[in-house]
Specification:
CATH architecture: 2-Layer Sandwich
Mean pLDDT: 84
Largest sheet: 4 strands, antiparallel
Helix content: 25-40%
Order of helices and strands: EHEEHE
Shape: globular
CATH topology: Alpha-Beta Plaits
Structural class: alpha+beta
Number of helices: 2
CATH class: Alpha Beta
Number of domains: 1
Low-confidence stretches: none
Distance between the termini: 19 Å
Strand order of the largest sheet: 2-3-1-4
Number of strands: 4
Length: 87
């Protein structure tokens, strides 16, 4: 499993969460603040199978107003997620 930490501008967050849900992905949303000018941000936590990572990155490219604009950028971190299964 992979865990994607995605930090997006608050104005893009609803659109991103809706697109993820429409494509069958679950997401945990956390309000956050930070960055150079203290813009309102949202941190999204998304657990996915490794083969779905590129699909999610493409959703962010589509949903965020501009992936290169400081006010509309999405910052994604993709990390390994150990899976705990109770036996």
């Amino acid at each position: 499993m992979k865990l994607i930490y995605a930090i997006v501008h608050e104005k893009d967050s609803d659109f991103v969460v809706e697109a993820l849900a429409q494509h069958g992905h679950t997401v945990t949303r956390i309000a956050s603040t930070g960055g150079f000018l203290r813009f309102g941000n949202v941190t999204l936590l998304i657990g996915v199978e490794p083969e779905k990572v590129n699909e999610i990155i493409q959703l962010f490219r589509t949903c965020c107003s501009s992936i290169t604009s400081a006010q509309s950028a999405a910052t994604l971190f993709v990390v390994e997620m150990p899976v705990f299964r109770k036996q």
